[in-house]
Amino acid sequence: MKKHPLYPVEYYPTFGKLVEGIERKFGTSPAVTIYTRGSESYTKTYKDLAEDIRALALAMKKQGCAGKHIAIAGENSYEWLVTFFAGEILGSPVILVDVDQDLQTLEKMILDTDTEILFYSPSIEEILNAHPSFRQLSKVCLETGEGARENSFFPLLERGRELLSSGEFLQPEEAEKEDLAVIAFTSGTTDSAKPVMLSRKGLLRNAGDANSMVNLQKRVFTSLPFYHTYGLSCSLLAVLMAGAHICVNGNLRTTMRDLQAFLPETIMTVPLLTEVIFKQLLAAAKREGLEGEVEREPRRTFFAKEKEPVVSPALQKIKEKMFGNLSQMISGGAHLPWEIAHKMEKFGVLVLQGYGITECSPLISVNRAEENRPESVGLVLPGISLRFEDGEIWVRGENVMLGYYKREEETAKVLQNGWFKTGDLGHMDKKGFLYIQGRKKNLIVLKNGKKISPEEIEARVAGLPMIGEVMAYGAAAGSFADDVKIAIAVYPDPQQTEEMSSYEILDALQKEIDRLNDGYPSYKQIQMIHLREKGFSKTATSKIKRETF
Amino acid sequence: MLKIVEEIIYTVTGKRNITDDTDFIKDLELNSFDIMNIVCAFEERFQITIPTRDVWKIHQVKDAVRYLQEKGISSSSENGSEDR
Fold it and tell me: Is the ipTM above a cut-off of 0.85?
């Protein structure tokens, strides 16, 4: 396979230079489109965006925010991204908070990272108001529009605009001396979610490197949350650096609606949405009697030099009717069954799988339109060195984190002379394609890209009555091998359940689990209970041997 | 009420034979997209807003029915059914 040259990319050393650069290069081109709940949409150009970022940064500076830790706890929105860039050009480390968390985790994420100013979504206002621990923070609600309250985004932005028009200006370059740009969290809750410190250089380099591998095209749709680094670096920073028009969606309820209204050429997503789109295309093909066409393999006749093209014109027509010019999907966060990528290609949609990890800002490798092996996670990015230690993938490069925030011991365990130990097992083929074979650490990887640590589930369950021993795992579910749901295997406490039948134990346990599930989003809920008659085999340190189950 | 809920689930997911005890994830094997689509259909039909954190507490059909009733919705108070 001939190596295809990298795409030319303009790299930016600071966020200030990035905002300046994209305004200069793409000015009046559309930058961001957002659909509101009522299906109306609004679009901001690169110039609008840059002006709003400068205005907000100036207003924030006047309030004394510069250099202080700023947390953003909100779903994707225009306000979110303006706040993020404003914080960055003020030299403030921005803490990325996943709003789908329980109170305890929110507290840890926001308070343990020394946050002083919190920008929050109205969806978590009730929780914030109900708990005294958040009172000490300056808070700004990411609420916009007419009638927004005094301490919310819109009045702050207006103040900044007034300051700008009165001749004040901002010199962002000075502020960006601090290398810490972002504190993002690895998967998990409370103690298991680690605060990852990412550098300015690392994030900007990673986003640029991503663009050198993949041509994003003109219209890009993302539903990836910006509070995860995949969403932030690949679907926000990289897309804006490339001057593309991005449709930002932050709500599963409106993902398909927005997608079909915006009609992108490229979608940045996780296997879950890739599969949803595939299933819709497949159902449409079935309705038209074209199911066989999806299954049919391209033939090579005796006289023809090359195989017939993979794309089926009839299937492509179906795709165009439903999704317009969609021609590329970048899928990451979890493994995508290669059969889906293969069949999507027949509809004229190339699915490029990539691999990343929060601690690496996050992208490590990605397939390219010109060099694509769907069963692999692609070629390693130009700025990254890779090596294998006992099969484990180690990564070195500017993209590697500065460390875990205030957790030196944990940092020392994974960083060694600039090499980050990913905990993932893999190998590389002769052509440089990387393959992931498993994980050294225990993680249940879900199709939406979220990772759940079994230990976290076990800790959640261990306190319930009747539990003797418990082990959490990902149980196979659904039509593909990668479909998993969270399951627990329980050895009931013999003393507490002496008089009970298995059925009674299971029934009582189910009620407890239902109650426990109430506090978590559906993907984090325990879906299956398996009762065991015997305890688990243990290691010398009395830990359950997972591999024996 | 169960009938209306059943009808909404059928319209969104194409799945029938729903009882009070039907579990959205375990029995109907819905993913988070399907669940949110059902939530949207409830919101549109009854002209209410269902916060995401409330959705976490709805596991079975009977939870949905109870939730709607707590919001003051009865089978006679549905809105917008003529649109469907």
Answer: no
